From TrEMBL:
One of its GO terms (cellular component) is plasma membrane. GO terms for biological process: phospholipid biosynthetic process. Probably interacts with PlsX. The gene is plsY. This is Glycerol-3-phosphate acyltransferase. It comes from the Bacteria. It is found in: Cell membrane. It is a multi-pass membrane protein. Belongs to the PlsY family. Keywords: Acyltransferase, Cell membrane, Lipid biosynthesis, Lipid metabolism, Membrane, Phospholipid biosynthesis, Phospholipid metabolism, Transferase, Transmembrane, Transmembrane helix. Its EC number is 2.3.1.275.
Length: 205
């Protein structure tokens, strides 16, 4: 019963879509109807407001970290640390993808997944972040960097943490990232995926 509570709490935390929240605070277009239509940091960057994109990134990462941290902390006190930790990891990620507070229309989950990885293990988070940064620096293609990190995450958790449940949870999260990036994958295969370029700053207009 207590595990169920932690999992539901994690889902509700994940359902806080920071791209939508930040866009409303800044008076920006709804990210679900602007640019790529994805409520995430990359799409927020297309508005020209780097501060809004940064806040979205920090918010989405933080909620992933917080949900897993709380589940681990309170789960340990009730003898269910492992189950609570990885159940919450999947739940907060699903909350981001399908947020109950925003019509179940969420983002692709890359920043939230990174926060989850850092909560599981700082080394795991750093390794995934490094893979993302390397691929992005070489290609300037955010989706390709995300897919690379998602591919490596289950392998990294198997090496650094081990255990059936951690690997299974990361496989589920990685599979969902691939599913949410399916249109990007089609464009990548067709050589049509766009690169991230420096946005035009419209804050003074």
């Amino acid at each position: 019963m207590f595990i169920s509570f932690l999992i539901v709490l994690a889902y509700l935390i994940g359902s806080l879509s920071f791209a939508v929240i930040v866009s409303r605070l800044f008076g920006l277009p709804d990210p679900r109807k602007h640019g790529s239509g994805n409520p995430g940091a990359t799409n927020m960057l297309r508005t020209g407001r780097k501060s809004a994109a940064a806040l979205t990134l920090i918010g989405d990462m933080s909620k992933g970290w917080l949900a897993v941290y709380l589940a681990r902390y309170f789960g340990a006190q009730h003898g269910v640390e492992i189950t609570a930790t990885y159940g919450a990891a999947v739940a907060v990620f699903l909350g981001h993808l399908y947020p109950i507070f925003f019509g179940f229309k969420g983002g692709k989950g890359v920043a939230t997944a990174l926060g989850i990885l850092f909560a599981i293990s700082p080394w795991l988070g750093l390794a995934a972040l490094a893979s993302w940064l390397i691929v992005f620096a070489l290609t300037r293609i955010s989706s390709l960097a995300a897919l690379t990190a998602a591919t490596l995450a289950p392998i990294l958790v198997s090496y650094l943490i081990g255990g059936t449940l951690p690997v299974a949870a990361l496989c589920i999260i990685s599979a969902l990232i691939f599913w949410r990036h399916r249109t990007n994958i089609h464009r990548l295969l067709a050589g049509e995926e766009g690169r991230v370029v420096k946005p035009v700053d419209t804050s003074s207009e």
